[in-house]
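Page 47, continued from p. 46.
Same chain as before, 233 aa.
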Amino acid sequence: MTLTAADLKKLAAYDTPTICNALEIVAPERRAHGFNRKPLICPFPKLKPIVGYARTATIRSREPNGASKAAQRALRGEYYQMIAADPAPSIAVLQDIDGPDAGFGAFWGEVQSTIHKGLGCLGVVTDGCIRDIDMWAPGFQALAGSIMPSHAHVHLVGINLEVSINGMIVRPNDLLHADYHGAVVIPHEVAKKVPAACELLTRKESVILKAAKSKGFTAAKLMKAIAEADEIH
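Result:
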């Protein structure tokens, strides 16, 4: 299913928890998966939600890269071409495969955030670490496993493959929604249905919230509001 810029904008109008709630309606089989199962650090919580197509890779930093410089440069070139390729916009999704030492060295900092932003990428989701927070490319979102000072021996291992970020399985060109709460994969086949489900949930919740904020709120009034919300379709 092809999404337009307008479709992506509609999805980005909602926070990630609301998107997760909407997916419970349009894709109930994904209620317990498709999102990160452990917290990710977001240094920029005030940035708006991002919606884009996952560009996946694996990294490691504990030991030196055994590949030749020519091979390393070739892989890096393929990686950047992948980031800039259609469909756009992209979101970089990097899994650190150093096991217990994941997050030992940072692939991400001032340089990489600036490069990726220049290539049309909206942000990064990684279980590895990031650094250079004060020098980070403005507006480039980040969800990371940790913040660390050194890049150690960090290098790309593989690109354009299935990865797992804190329990969230992501495949190349999956549609990803992320904000400071976390990230979730939106199945392409239901993506256009999600904004309407978000709007429906918002209307239902508004009835309950209005009652809860009113003077003289009681359990009986709550149950009445819940019944009213249930009638909204």
